[in-house]
Design a protein that fits this description.
With about 170 residues, the protein is mostly helical. Helix content is about 95%, strand content about 0%. It is rod-shaped and about 110 Å long. The model is unreliable at about 1-5 (pLDDT under 50).
């Protein structure tokens, strides 16, 4: 018997339980345990799915971090190249047109990398939002299922009490 039934057990219920056979009590215990294990199994299955999705998201996030690092390296290389460009311009080693072409190419590269970085950030935000929504949805389902189990147990106990009361009359 669960804690809820032992706290509110009427004398009639006590007599009814005493009158039940050992097999009847054992059967009720087995059914209760089976229901509990089935609910726990479902919760564990959903939890594993959430953990797997979280692991996939972490892998994706790590790849984004690597891309950001490569972007930072490219940015540093661009800054170094830019300083070299400035020193070359001062020494007038190249003609004006050659320097302009090199600068435009470097700016185009930087703008492309910025656009790619923004796309990566937007995609990461979308994935994070989707993962957060899925976790919230699954938590809601767990709460709903828990409520249904508690309602079913309360209804069962109420039915047993009414059955006991009708038997005692």
């Amino acid at each position: 018997m669960s804690c809820a039934t032992t706290l509110h057990t009427t004398p009639g219920e006590v007599n009814r339980q005493r009158a039940r056979t050992h097999d009847g009590l054992y059967q009720a215990y087995v059914v209760g345990e089976a229901n509990t294990r089935a609910a726990n199994h479902q919760i564990v299955r959903e939890w594993r799915t959430m953990v797997k999705e979280r692991a996939d998201w972490e892998k994706y996030r790590e790849s984004l971090v690597k891309e950001v690092k490569s972007y930072e390296i490219a940015k540093a290389a661009f800054a170094k190249e830019k300083t070299k460009f400035e020193s070359d311009r001062k020494s007038e080693e190249w003609g004006r047109e050659g320097l302009r072409g090199k600068l435009h190419a470097a700016e185009e590269l930087l703008s492309k990398e910025r656009a790619e970085f923004k796309k990566i950030c937007e995609k990461d935000n979308q994935c994070s939002y989707a993962a957060r929504n899925k976790i919230t949805e699954l938590e809601g389902k767990v709460a709903e299922l828990t409520g249904k189990v508690e309602d079913a147990q309360a209804a069962k106990e109420k039915a047993e009490v009414w059955e006991t009361l009708s038997l005692t009359r």
